[in-house]
Amino acid sequence: MYITDSRKRKRFRRRRRILLLVAVVAIIAIVVLRQPGWIPNPFEPTPTPTPAPATFLLAAEVAYEEGRLDDAIAAFSDYLVLQPEDDAVWAQLARLQILNGQSEEGLESAGKAMELDRDSAYNNAVYGWALDWNRDYNRAIEIAIHAVDLDPLM
After folding, report:
1. Are 77 and 69 in contact (CB under 8 A)?
2. CA dihedral 12, 18, 23, 27 (to 10 degrees)
């Protein structure tokens, strides 16, 4: 007789503890869900800072000095996505493309540099060099002479 009563009391106590635990967890869940800043959403993308354009130029110069022309071209291209009006970088990109054997792409890049600044001796020299590599020798000579006229010390 006594055995059944003690078991019933233990079960009742266990049920009370479990119900109390479930109630506490439910209250905590309600409070936490009402405060959205307490638990970060794991599905939101983490904000990352956008690199400055100068970092791409630095990476391009380092890659060029190390002889990695493909990486330097990629870094200059990334820079030009952010700063497309920089004619000197277009000319540097054209120079590297020509050195890397991409003479047609180099001619396009040199042409963009010339569109941005026709009075730059460096842009004219690179454009003339690109024309030379694309076998347009007469026009290359004209552009090269114009580059020397702009800056005789170049």
Report:
1. no
2. 160
